[in-house]
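Support request from a user on the community tier.

User writes: "When I paste my C-alpha cells into the form, the page sometimes reloads and wipes my input. The last time it worked, I copied everything first. Here is what I submitted, just in case something in the input itself triggers the reload:"
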C-alpha cells in the first residue's frame, strides 16, 4: 500500500486520479486501505510525496 508523506501540499491531484477512491482529503492527504497499489497517484504527484509503503494496514 502506498502512503503520503509530509511533503504533500494538498493539491488534490492524487485524489482525482485514484481509481479505487482510496485517498482521503486532508493536510496532508491520506491513503486508506482501499488502495490497490496501482501506482497512479505516485506518478501524478507534483512534489513526489507518495511513496510505496509496507503491507501493514493503516486505518
Ligand atoms: Fe489510489 Fe492507486 Fe494511489 Fe492506491 S496506488 S491510492 S489505488 S491511485
Ligand atoms: Fe499531496 Fe501529492 Fe496528492 Fe497533491 S498529489 S494532494 S501533493 S500527495
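"...and here is what came back when it finally went through:"
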Amino acid at each position: 500500500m502506498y502512503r503520503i508523506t509530509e511533503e504533500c501540499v494538498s493539491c488534490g491531484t492524487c485524489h482525482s486520479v485514484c481509481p479505487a477512491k482510496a485517498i482521503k482529503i486532508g493536510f496532508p492527504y491520506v491513503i486508506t486501505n482501499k488502495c490497490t497499489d496501482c501506482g497512479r497517484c505516485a506518478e501524478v504527484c507534483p512534489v513526489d510525496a507518495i511513496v510505496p509503503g509496507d503491507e501493514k494496514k493503516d486505518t
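Agent notes: The reload is a front-end session timeout and is unrelated to the input. The chain has a mean pLDDT of 93. Helices lie at 13-17, 40-44. Escalated to web team.
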